[in-house]
Design a protein that fits this description.
Chains A, B: Residues 18-45 are annotated as: Disordered. The structure is a homodimer of 500-residue chains. With 500 residues, chain A is α+β, with helices and mostly antiparallel strands. In chain A, 23% of the residues lie in helices and 21% in strands. Chain A has 2 domains: 45-115 and 126-175 and 220-292 and 398-492, Phosphatase 2c, domain 1, CATH 3.60.40.10; 297-373, no CATH class.
């Protein structure tokens, strides 16, 4: 503990001075075996360390927020209004990293056609004159091995999404038309000329016999799947941008990214990592995300290792075993499973099986290449296996899974909410417990109190953090509370009605 | 039609003579663009064409069963008893292939330790003295491009599963013990010696600091996942066996494989293809399979094409487009999605995009490489893209998805059943409709009639086939009936109580 406290003080002296080149390097979930190479210390940070702007912390409060011993809960100030009266609360970890590596953002922006002036200056914060299609964005970013990637994503991801949507703005403005399959260079729909009376197009070598029908098939793509494609593409661009800007800035670590986007009556929830979002409607839980972990993505990772063994650097095997194999066990039979299997079978142990398994460990302790406990997210471009030249990144994916909830087609009361939280929340509290707690809390709250969703978020957070006792952070049932950073949004689904 | 009739007559003359070198080559779902190379005609069939043994058809009835014009429904004879009083019905297609390419099997076998005598003569049908652990097997095999693979799988898959289970028989006999992680060569559990007081094992270079705990982690594997592994492995061995025996026999085509295995109180349902199984309990539907089609497996196939472009033979692109691109569209923007995307986005068309998409078409017309409409199954080792040297097989997977239903932990009435059917059934009848029809039918049936499940199967089949009217096979609602081969098992879940 004394060492930790000194570290915190050193970090604070940097922090209060406004300069935080990169966080202390701890890996996700207490793991310290992996390696992380940062850019040269001379590079400036892309964004300085801080907490979300909407918290409006003074330097003193910023310092106070990092007290691992007391773990103060930060919430919105009374008087601060987020769009939709969104509630928010956060707390730092119990000491696993000096700074809170979670980040969050909540923004209302406007989608509009890129104008001549802005065409090449993307990512501008300015929304001009407030015209365009309104877009609400909530993002939760759980950093690891530093805060750089999480901070950068919290500042820029919503703008990337906004700008990509701007490019299809003319399609969004005519939602009753299905998006054209082909666009001319000027963006107008392009149709292949149909030759009069020549349905067979005999000069086309592909159009033989019954394949003609298929040749002329045209899939109808909905506007909704176009928005999904924009979000998926924006995550990839965010990841590419982090990589690119690492040449000029210190951007440490990587982050899980969970984003909710409200556009034209639909809520798109995009998740890459182990954060989670649920909708609570009439006290019923609607899961809006799946978690991406070494266990849930085992077969995808094993398949990549199987098809591209060079990525395993002769150190790892794509085959999973229930434990490490010892040299003396060569020739014996051991349980295993490969990328094709869900069950287990026995195989005779050969020399190659003595390598370390690509996926190893159980539950929260499962790791990819003994290094990282999540399999999707942004950043991590220079993350390598400890003491090796093996990069983790090819196995990590920046692709989110996007689910759509049709907000306008459902009725919502004031207690119906979207809860978004980092794994710190969900590790100790189940979906059901969260739903019950939120529903119970909100039903006792003054429905006209604009703070009610923030109070509900704070209540959720306290339930997962617990209180400090002699034997650590404990929940009321004496179970261990979460020692991780925790970040929670509680978004009222009837909240758009509160907008002016 | 006259041409078709002649073909049938020719086939019959072979068939009645007991010789059926290989079926007429039609592709799954009416597609005729793909190519299929069979072994030299001089090779004998691995098994002659026929219908399941339990139907006990005379040569006359066998010929009658192939009448595409009348499509007679075949059921169990009154007096024939399948294990558990299983019900069965089948019907041939409306003309898309000469013979019924569906096959089925229903067997009771016994799992026992391989004895010295049998150790090297696996796949023997004989179950010896009837001792061992009883195993019930139901299999439904939907062939395409010939009946060879489907017939072979219907004869051998259950024996492969039985024999693989025999190898872990000593573990099955002690179900209260978790399977040992490591086995010595003689099959007895092998434990690594733990060194006295040396938890750190300082001489082991891997056991540094906090990784020690992980090094010593041991995953507990259940007997259930060992049985799942056996089934997965047996599907792979079945596929390998087809490939191997093609050197000596004519084994035409490939097949979807759906198998239900009852062992020690649990029902394991393994599916590779687009057949389907549901449990109906209290008239509620419990889906036991997912279908594997170009649409449901799009991303897996695209990922393989992306990582191994040489498999696409310079003819196909792994990127999906909503329609074929014409040369005149180069430089324009078109909707697309790659292996990472669920939504759609626009991309500028380049030369490479003019290749044919790996996955193309919608619904039942979706195809892999314009050739095949299912993505999992057995056989198809020589299936190539029409007029090319591009093999389809690397994209087809023989791996089943296995789901487990704990039969002993649930109460079942006489109307609770497992329904297994080829896609001919499900293409025109929904899960809900099947459940309602079965429940309604069985509730009107004499509960002591041993034929009730066969009558229910026949009823289901009639609902999907319809009756022949002027405009083809029609359902009572005038919709088109299925023109495909249809095979249905109705397995009573309380059926084991009917066993002696």
């Amino acid at each position: 503990m004394p060492i930790m406290m000194n570290k915190v003080k050193n970090a604070m002296s940097n922090l209060v001075g406004g300069m935080m080149p990169h966080g202390h390097h701890h890996h996700h979930n207490h793991h310290s075996g992996g390696g992380q190479t940062c850019g040269p210390d001379s590079l400036p940070p892309r964004f300085p360390y801080g907490r979300p702007d909407f918290l409006d912390l003074s330097p003193e409060l910023l310092q106070y927020s990092t007290e691992h011993a007391s773990r103060p809960v930060l919430t919105l100030k009374r008087g601060t209004r987020l769009p939709w009266q969104t509630g928010y609360a956060e707390v730092i970890n119990a000491g696993k990293s000096m700074l809170n590596e979670d980040q969050a953002s909540c923004e209302k922006v406007f989608v509009k056609k890129p104008s001549g002036k802005h065409r090449n200056s993307t990512l501008l914060e300015d929304n001009g004159d407030g015209t365009g299609i309104p877009l609400h964005f909530w993002g939760v970013f759980d950093g690891h091995a530093g805060s750089g990637a999480a901070i950068m994503a919290s500042k820029l991801l919503h703008r990337l999404i906004r700008d990509r949507l701007g490019e299809i703005c003319h399609l969004l403005e005519n939602p009753s038309n299905a998006p054209p399959i082909c666009l001319a260079k000027n963006g107008s729909p392009y149709q292949v000329e149909s030759k009069k009376g020549a349905a067979q197009e005999p000069e086309d070598p592909d159009a033989v016999s019954d394949s003609t029908v298929r040749f002329h098939m045209e899939k109808v793509v909905s506007l909704e799947s176009l928005v999904m494609g924009v979000i998926e593409t924006a995550f990839k661009q965010m990841d590419d941008l982090i990589e690119k800007e690492k040449a000029s800035y210190a951007i440490s670590g990587g982050c899980c990214a969970l984003a909710a986007i409200h556009l034209m009556g639909k809520l798109y929830v995009a998740n890459a990592g182990d954060s989670r979002a649920i909708i609570i409607r009439n006290n019923e839980v609607i899961p809006m995300t799946n978690e991406f972990t070494p266990e849930s993505e085992r077969q995808r990772l094993q398949y990549l290792g199987f098809l591209r063994p060079e990525l395993l650097g002769n150190e790892f095997t794509h085959i999973e075993f229930p434990r490490r194999i010892q040299h003396s066990e060569l020739g014996k039979k051991m349980l295993y499973r490969d990328h094709t299997m869900t069950g287990w079978a026995y195989k005779t142990i050969v020399e190659d099986d003595l390598k370390f398994p690509l996926i190893y460990g159980e539950g929260k302790k499962a790791r990819v290449m003994a290094t990282i406990g999540v399999t999707r997210g942004l950043g991590d471009h220079d993350l390598k296996v400890y003491n090796s030249n093996i990069y983790i990144k090819p196995f990590l994916s920046c692709v989110p899974e996007v689910k759509v909830y049709n907000l306008d087609e459902n009725k919502h009361g004031p207690d119906d909410v979207l809860v978004m939280g980092t794994d710190g929340l969900w590790d100790v509290t189940t979906d059901r417990e969260v739903a019950d707690a939120v529903s119970a809390y909100l039903s006792c709250c003054d429905p006209s109190d604009p703070m009610r969703y923030t109070l509900a978020a704070q209540d959720l957070l306290m339930r997962s953090r617990g209180v400090l006792k002699e034997r650590g952070w404990r929940l009321p049932n004496e179970k261990l509370g979460s020692g991780d950073d925790i970040t929670v949004f509680v978004v009222p689904l009837a909240g758009q009605e509160s907008e002016t």
